[in-house]
Amino acid sequence: MEIITERLRLREFTISDVGSVHEFASDPRVCAFVEWGPNTLADSTAFISDCLAEQLVHPRTTWTLAITQDAQVIGSIALMCGASNLLEHASDAEIGFVLRAESWVLGYVTEAATALAAAAGEKLGITRLLATCRPDNIGSVRVLEKLGLLRIGYLRGHKLIDGVARDSVVFARSLASVNPAALSIREA
Questions:
Q1: By C-alpha distance, which of 170, 181, 185 is closest to 135?
Q2: 175: confidence class by pLDDT, cuts 50, 70, 90
Q3: In this structure, what is the dihedral angle of CA atoms 134, 135, 137, 142, given to the nearest 10 degrees?
Q4: Does residue 183 register a pLDDT over 90?
Q5: Which stretches make up the N-acetyltransferase domain (predicted)?
Q6: In 3-state terms, what secondary structure has residue 60?
Q7: Which residue, 68, 77, 80, is CA-closest to 17?
Q8: Strand order in 150-161's β-sheet?
Q9: For residue range 85-129, what is the model confidence (pLDDT) as tens digits?
Q10: Among 3-7, 74-78, 119-123, whose mean pLDDT is lowest?
Q11: Could you say which of 43, 113, 141, 144 would form a disulfide bridge with 149 (CB–CB 3.0 to 4.6 Å)?
């Protein structure tokens, strides 16, 4: 899958992306609210290997895409349709994202997530989008709210981060009203 937006290209990861991924995945600021990282080079290489393997699965249930700007990988965004205990129906999907710190607060994640939500609804038949984030991750909370997701739950001790069970806020929205205008969506 490839998605083109005004400023970004979301594309499948390739083996040559290891270095770019490792730049942001080894940054403690980027990993502060997630259950992985900071990555070693071996961790980042394993992530890319997992992405390459999921590209070969049929039927595909996970799409982890590189967020690129001017051909440089600045983050990752994923749509998961089967490997989440949050999903209640076959047409539900969970979205997750991470972005290098130097690209925060520029609207890139909102742009990428809006585009992926549109593709999920139009091309994959997804009707409900879910996400989780830590309550104190204000940046992610704002992105999810900008996407029109509403808080629907609170999970105590949901994610193990640095050996500590951390809470998660659960967000959801229907994709019935997603407007795919101004997007170019191509299957690779």
A1: 170
A2: confident
A3: 120
A4: no
A5: 8-176
A6: coil
A7: 68
A8: 150-161, 164-174, 128-133, 92-99, 72-80, 62-69, 9-12, 2-4, 184-186
A9: 778 788 899 999 999 999 999 999 999 999 999 999 998 999 999
A10: 119-123
A11: 144
d(CA 145, CA 147): 5
- In b/e form, how buried is each residue of 149-184, taking b as 16+ CB within 10 angstroms? beeeeeeeebbebeeeebebbbbbbebeebebeebe
* Measured distance CA(139)–CA(156) in Å, rounded: 20
Q: Tell me how far apart the alpha carbons of residues 148 and 171 are, in angstroms, rounded to a whole number.
A: 9
Q: Which two tokens stand for residue 112?
A: 């990428």
- Nearest residue to 124 via CA among 51, 50, 58, 61: 61
Q: What is the mean pLDDT of residues 45-56?
A: 97
Render 10-31 in DSSP notation, one character per residue. EEE--GGGHHHHHHHHT-TTTT
Cβ distance 46 to 101 under 8 Å? no
Q: From residue 9, give the alpha-carbon distance in Å to each of 22, 65, 172.
A: 19, 9, 25
Domains annotated for the chain, with CATH where assigned, are 2-129+179-186 (3.40.630.30)
Reply yes or no on whether the pLDDT at 24 is more than 90: yes
What global pTM score does this model have?
0.89
